[in-house]
Write a structure and sequence with these properties.
- The complex is a heterodimer of chains A (53) and B (980).
- By secondary structure, chain A is an all-alpha fold.
- Chain A has one domain.
- Chain A contains three helices and no strands.
- With 980 residues, chain B is of the alpha+beta class.
- Chain B folds into five domains: 337 residues, no CATH class; 85 residues, no CATH class; 108 residues, Beta-Lactamase, CATH 3.30.450; 74 residues, Helix Hairpins; 147 residues, Histidine kinase-like ATPase, C-terminal domain (Heat Shock Protein 90).
- Helix content of chain B is 65%, strand content 10%.
- In chain B, helix 21 packs antiparallel against helix 23 and helix 36 packs across helix 37.
- The N and C termini of chain B lie far apart (103 Å).
- The relative contact order of chain B is 0.07.
- The chains are: A mainly alpha (53), B alpha+beta (980).
Chain lengths: 53, 980
């Protein structure tokens, strides 16, 4: 359960202001928002693993 | 390229027919059985979230708000990250209590029909604009392709087809346990079409318009303003508000709730969907910026909402264009079908049923409910169509979608309270919902009704200016703040009644069972007649039968706990049919509980244990430690080497451990919950008598089981009253019932018998030894004197008489010698031991006996491996077999047989000699090794043969035992040490 909350907190931090101001910049690759989203998705099974077991 | 309206209509018709075929094939099991249950199907079916708003509107939203369009999916991802703490508990409640919608869940949690009514009304109000949005998207997309206003028949016939599909595959079963697999697979199929269509358009845009990935990069490098246009609005827009809205929409929208929870086949699939579904949405949305930039590059001139169609049309491929159009039809139809299906159930259960008051018992309830839902589906689809006609040109697709999102976000405080705050009450929930709902209506709906965009009326615009907020941020934060504040405030200020407290504890998993009272009905047969006045005879019988079948309960059941379970199952099944409030009302009224008579604590404990075992919930902290302690004590009880059974004060058996099952032969599943006096013979009577008696212990109770005597010891413990704590935390003293321990003393009894027997033989041996000593010496003297006399007497007649004296003294000496042999202890070292073959010994003994009784035709069958060897005194052991075989000869009728069987086990050799003679009664066979005990007529035997045999066998360190039954025969078993 701790991993779930950790991932949720981290995702909230990355996806909410003011951190979004860092990666919502035109100087970065256009696909960066998708990449961040993908990383979060890939971490979900890790966050839920112990609970599923 | 311009397509014709009839062509589009025909392709839509063909596509929806294909959808019918997919659903029909699934329902008819033409597809592999694993397919509908596969987690991928579940994940794809959740794709109903992506409506025309996502399929078409995302490009428009991205055009005006840049990467803001992603927030609609990022919020959902956040909700799925919390799946174990947020979605799984809801799924548990939905499955356990057969709840079919969010209205059911709130009505169940807050024990309030008003809550159900409000939620349903609010859902209807929030979803109708969304349905109209889908109809509008299909119509407008057709207009884009035909370059003219789409004919009315297109949208109307689309609605008719959707109604047909919904009725045929969505409202197919009335029971929530029977999942609509055809519908689920069809929705999954539609999601796949949407995904493929968008991917195809993106691929075409990259290859056909940008000339590859590199081309896209170059174009972006040369047009930094295009990229900046994606980032700037996102930085300045209502990012957090839309995150919150999509977080709530992820599982609270009627269609999401229905596919996530109601149609879920296996809870395990939810963990796959936690990452699979966001991944699906990511791939879907990856196409959006590419499509947008391609449209900008080509300056397509289409409305941004329909850039996806514009790109497809730009390629000049009719097939691709129609495929993309069908992708839009998929997005719209899936949303409408699932939403109306979910809303239909809510409307029937929470609006129509409460309005009718009672059910008409003369009609078939199932058919009534089914057609009720089907009618509501049609009404809702056409209401959406009416809404579309009324507000045809008022707002962007996204605007209407966000209105619905703000509406469902009003359920967020309620759902958090349901899962995590047992103190929340119905007053707070209703007040919060009304407050938040009114805010939503004033801020977003009133301007829409007045002909402006949502939140764009003059008064509302002034509000945004004062607050310095975006309209979505303002409407979200203000409505949720009002809602949440009223919810908490009224929950804190007003109390809960007992029913609400119980439901709150069940939802928060603080308790597993609410049962504390006994039912007034005494048999399961009484259930159907009791329910008939409320449900109708046919429905009542069917529901009782179904509940009994679920519980695998016998037709006639009288156990109080089983009846409570049956009542609970009926309530849950009815909840799936009629909603939790109506179901509870029917059950409370028709299957009343006698609240003056509580279930005994022992029965409640057993029920709680059962629930704890069945519960898959993860206990934590103190609860986990207590559960570990409970399991430890349970295991100790189970593993005790004595039988343990607990009997409640009602006579119901609440504990029956494994040893108890073994000893009694009564299976645990049969014993538990049954009345003690209903146990099979002889246990029912035995335990009942012991229970009712004042005795606390029975040392040895003879019980005949399967024709054999067994001896049991029984102990009884009747603990006094114990302090128990109820669900509300108050304590009370209650009797705990009685525990009985059962111990098998058969072996102890046999050992004691054997000990007594040996002691008796030893005593006789000591006596025989004394007698032999006292008689032997005078007899030796007599023999000496007689021998001297014989030498001195010359008279032949006198010599013969003296010879007679010598013969008699010889006979006495033999008897004395036998007595000495019987009584001798520790003389084994005087034996002439050596290794010899057993078979030869047995054959020799047989031959000697046959020669002694040549006229008796007895067949001796020797079954002995010639390799079997024995270490011992061959002559004496031969004597043993001669003695036993002589007895067998004497007892057996002519023409019968004696079977001699020798077998080796480990280091021991057992020789079994079985005849079919007259046998002996138990009392005689128990004394057969004692001297002078014989079955023969006086003069035919001395009764010393078996005593001698016993002595010889014992000197060899062996054992001998006799098993005999009158009229059947005798078996003598000799166990000796084998030679290596």
């Amino acid at each position: 359960m701790e991993r779930t909350f950790l991932l949720f907190g981290l995702s909230l931090l990355v996806l909410a202001f003011p951190v979004t101001g860092w990666w919502l910049r035109a100087t970065l690759p256009w696909y960066l928002p998708f990449l961040i989203w993908l990383v979060i998705i890939l971490l979900i099974p890790w966050a839920h693993r112990r609970i599923d077991n | 390229m311009i397509l014709s309206a009839p062509g589009l209509f025909l392709s839509s018709l063909l596509y929806l027919s294909l959808l019918f075929l997919v659903a029909y094939a699934t329902e008819k099991h033409w597809l592999p059985a694993w397919l509908p249950r596969h987690p991928a199907i579940y994940v794809l079916s959740l794709g109903v979230y992506a409506t025309t708003w996502s399929f078409y509107g995302s490009a428009g939203y991205a055009d005006s708000n840049g990467f803001m369009f992603l927030t609609v999916y990022l919020g959902l991802t956040l909700a799925f990250i919390l799946s174990p703490v947020l979605l799984s508990p809801i799924l548990r409640l939905v499955r356990e209590y057969q709840l079919t919608s969010l209205a059911d869940l709130f009505a169940f949690r807050f024990r309030s029909q008003t809550a159900g009514v409000l939620v349903t009304l609010f859902m209807l109000a929030g979803t109708l604009p969304y349905i109209s949005l889908q109809i509008r998207a299909v119509t407008e997309s057709a207009s884009v392709l035909t370059q003219q206003f789409a004919p009315q028949y297109l949208s109307l016939s689309f609605c008719v087809l959707i109604v047909l599909f919904g009725v045929l595959f969505g409202a197919r079963h009335i029971s929530p346990r029977e999942k609509h697999q055809g519908l689920v697979v069809a929705i999954a199929f539609e999601s796949l079409v949407k995904l493929l269509a968008l991917i195809l358009v993106a691929v075409v845009a990259i290859t056909g318009i940008f000339g590859g990935i590199g081309g896209l990069g170059e174009w972006l490098d040369s047009h930094p303003e295009a990229l900046e246009a994606m980032y700037t609005p996102a930085r300045e827009g209502p990012w957090v508000s839309v995150l919150i809205l999509s977080f709530a929409a992820a599982f609270l929208l009627p269609r999401q709730f229905h596919m996530l929870f109601t149609e879920n086949i296996s809870p395990g699939t939810l963990s796959r969907a936690a990452w699979g579904f966001p991944l699906f949405l990511l791939v879907l949305n990856l196409a959006i910026p590419i499509v947008l930039w391609a449209a900008i590059k080509q300056n397509l001139g289409t409305v941004p909402d329909y850039h996806v169609l514009g790109i497809a049309r730009h390629t000049g491929s009719a097939a691709l264009t129609i495929f993309v159009f069908l992708g839009g039809v998929s997005a719209a139809s899936a949303m409408i079908i699932v939403s109306t299906l979910a809303l239909a159930g809510m409307t029937v259960n929470h609006l129509i049923l409460p309005a009718t008051g009672t059910l008409d018992t003369s009609v078939n309830l199932y058919r009534w409910l089914l057609w009720g839902r089907r009618t509501i589906i049609a009404v809702l689809v056409f209401a959406g169509y009416g809404f579309f006609l009324a507000f045809e040109r008022s707002s962007q697709l996204v605007q209407l979608g966000l209105i619905s999102f703000v509406a469902v976000a009003q359920f967020l405080p309620g759902i958090i309270g349901t899962l995590f705050w047992p103190g929340a009450n119905r007053n707070g929930f209703i007040a919060g919902l009304v407050g938040g709902g009114l805010t939503w209506f004033i801020v977003l709906i009133l301007p829409l009704l007045a002909g402006a965009g949502p939140g764009e009326g003059p008064a509302q615009a002034a509000l945004w200016e004062i607050a310095g907020q975006n309209k979505w941020t303002f409407s979200t934060l203000v409505s949720l703040s009002i809602n949440g504040t009223l919810f908490v405030l009224l929950s804190v200020l007003t109390g809960q009644d007992a029913a609400e407290r119980e439901a709150a504890a069940l939802c928060a998993q603080q308790i597993l069972t609410p049962y504390r009272s006994r039912m007034r009905l005494t048999s399961s047969r009484e259930f159907a007649p009791a329910l008939a006045p409320a449900l109708g005879t046919q429905t009542a019988e069917h529901e009782v039968q179904r509940a009994r079948h679920d519980l695998q309960m016998a037709e006639e059941e009288t156990n109080t706990q089983a009846l409570a379970r049956l009542r609970e199952r009926i309530e849950r099944n009815l909840s799936g049919l009629l909603g939790p409030h109506f179901a509870r009302d029917v059950v409370e009224t028709r299957l009343p509980i006698d609240r003056d008579h509580k279930l005994p604590v022992a029965e409640r404990m057993r029920f709680m244990e059962e629930r704890l075992e069945a519960s898959r919930s993860h206990l934590r902290g103190l609860a986990a430690q207590l559960d570990t302690m409970r399991r430890y004590h349970r295991q100790v009880l189970e593993d005790l080497p004595v039988g343990v059974c607990s009997i409640a004060s009602t006579g119901s058996i609440t504990t029956w451990n494994g040893v108890m099952s073994t000893l009694s032969g009564v299976d645990k599943s049969k014993a538990l919950d049954s009345q003690v006096d209903q146990l099979p013979v002889p246990w029912g009577e035995l335990l009942k008598q012991f229970l009712d008696s004042d005795q606390r212990e029975i040392h040895k109770k003879l019980v005949h089981l399967e024709g054999r005597p067994r001896w049991f010891g029984l102990l009884k413990a009747t603990p006094g009253n114990a302090a128990t704590t109820n669900d509300t935390g108050s304590s009370a003293a209650e009797p705990l019932g009685t525990s009985i321990l059962l111990q098998d003393l058969t072996n102890v009894h046999l050992l004691e018998d054997q000990l007594a027997h040996n002691e008796r033989l030893a005593s006789i041996g000591r006596f025989a030894s004394g007698v032999a000593h006292e008689i032997g010496n005078p007899v030796t003297g007599i023999a000496c004197l007689a021998q001297n006399l014989k030498e001195e007497i010359r008279d032949s007649e006198m010599r013969e008489e003296v010879q007679g004296i010598l013969q008699q003294t010889e006979r006495i000496n033999n008897i004395v010698q036998t007595l000495v042999n019987f009584s001798r202890r520790g003389d084994a070292d005087k034996l002439e031991k050596h290794r010899f073959d057993l078979r030869g010994c047995l054959e020799e003994a047989t031959e000697l006996v046959r020669l002694s009784q040549p006229n008796k035709n007895i067949d001796v069958l020797i079954d002995c491996d010639p390799q079997l060897n024995i270490e011992g005194d061959r002559q004496r052991l031969c004597q043993v077999f001669v003695n036993i075989l002589t007895n067998s000869y004497d007892a057996s009728p002519a023409g019968s047989s004696v079977r001699v069987l020798a077998s080796k086990s480990a280091e021991l050799i057992q020789v079994s000699l079985r005849d079919h003679g007259h046998g002996m009664p138990d009392e005689l066979s128990a004394r057969i090794f004692e001297p002078f005990v014989t079955t023969k007529q006086p003069g035919d035997g001395t009764g010393l043969g078996m005593a001698l045999t016993y002595g010889i066998v014992r000197d060899h360190g062996g054992e001998i035992e006799v098993d005999s039954a009158p009229g059947v025969g005798t078996e003598v078993r000799v166990v000796l040490q084998g030679a290596p």
